[in-house]
Amino acid sequence: MPDRVPAPAAESALPPSSVTTRAFLAGPARAAGVSQRWLDSAELFRPVRGVRSLVVPQTLVDRVAGLMPALPTGAAFSHVTGALLLDLPLSYAMEEDQRLHVTGPLDTRRMRKPGVVAHRALHARAHTIVDGLPVVDLADTWVDMGELVGRGKPAGLDDLIVIGDAVATRLNSVQPMRRALMARVRPRGKATLLEALDEIRVGSASPRETLARLMLVRCGLPEPALNQAIVGDNDVLLGVADLHWSKEGVVGEYQGEAFHDGPQERASDEVRREGFERRAGLTVEEIWKADMSSSRARRSCVLRFARALGVPESSLDLSQADPRFFSSHAIDLAIQRDMQRSMRRFG
After folding, report:
1. Do 222 and 190 lie in a common domain?
2. Which pLDDT tens digit goes with each residue over 13-39?
3. Would you state the pLDDT for residue 4?
4. Is 66 part of any domain?
5. Does residue 237 surpass a pLDDT of 60?
6. Residue 284: strand, helix, or coil
7. pLDDT (tens digit, 9 = 90+) per residue, 76-118?
8. Final residue in a domain of this structure, among 147, 174, 197
């Protein structure tokens, strides 16, 4: 890499007129007449070798834009990078991956740059544009998350369901994800993705709402409608219920501390709850973060909802209240491996 040689103030005050983007390839810029002195100046940031940027990256979009000039034709940002650009909910373990992920057609050259993971795809991905940047679209990004599933990897079954709920809600359907998955031959994590599809629903407004629904339904409670408008007399909107069991007349409200713990938020919640109970005749059960903080708390929460819904405790499987990281397929494989090891040891 050339040494950084500060350019004279008059030369470095503004970029040359031939430089029209915030990040650009140094070679073509040099061929267009940009001086090597300015290209080597300390005012330019070098995102990756051969690229110069007019801005020091402060955000993920800045980092991605800095890599953009070096992107092979037909490539797009993908996997964790794509999910973050699409504003999909990721776990802390997934967000820890600070590398930039790029996916291109199988016949494109593989990028070999520090901090960049280049994926070459056998099957084409649909692309969208985010902040002027090419990104693998919602449904294909969800399928790509299957590559993060497995021993020693950061994503589990419930992570795929949380992301899937967000994708399904934005697309108003689960089917685009199913089509994207079925279009691929033996994608990584396929068994877990298929299992997740069965539990993905349209309508969830947050990851905690998704996890609350899974906790209740897996134990044997009926499936609720998600974020359903509750209308009172004279078609007056009383509010939107996070979880709604219309037949049983029960509403479940997830009260996240970030949005429901202040005095104004609590007052608004009380008004909505009063409308649900007095004007619509509904029973309202709240779910707080503490209700999902331990196995004991989760089981107690499930039993509280079961009483409200009129579901006998004897029909519940409270062992299913805990979050699930491993899919049924992964658990079955682990059991088979243990049995095979035991047979080799004692057989």
Report:
1. no
2. 456 666 656 788 888 888 888 888 888
3. 43
4. no
5. yes
6. strand
7. 999 999 999 999 999 999 999 999 999 998 777 777 888 899 9
8. 197
Which of residues 167, 197, 227 is at a domain's end? 197
Helix (H) or strand (E) holding 96: none
User: How many residues does this entry show for the chain?
Assistant: 347
Q: Quick one: DSSP state of residue 333?
A: H
Higher pLDDT, 282 or 271: 282
Q: Is residue 312 part of a domain?
A: yes
- Angstrom distance (rounded) from CA 280 to CA 36: 73
Sign of dihedral through CA atoms 82, 85, 89, 92?
A: positive
Average pLDDT for 152-181: 97
Chain centroid, CA 143 distance in Å: 11
CA distance 92 to 82: 16
- pLDDT given for residue 15 in this prediction: 66
Q: How far is 101 from 140, CA to CA, in rounded Å?
A: 14
Cα→Cα distances 187→66, 93, 123, 142, Å: 30, 22, 10, 12
Tokens of 342: 């035991």
d(Cα 124, Cα 59) in Å, to the nearest integer?
A: 28
Contact predicate 119/101, CB 8 Å:
yes
Rounded to 5 degrees, φ, ψ at 62 are -60, -45
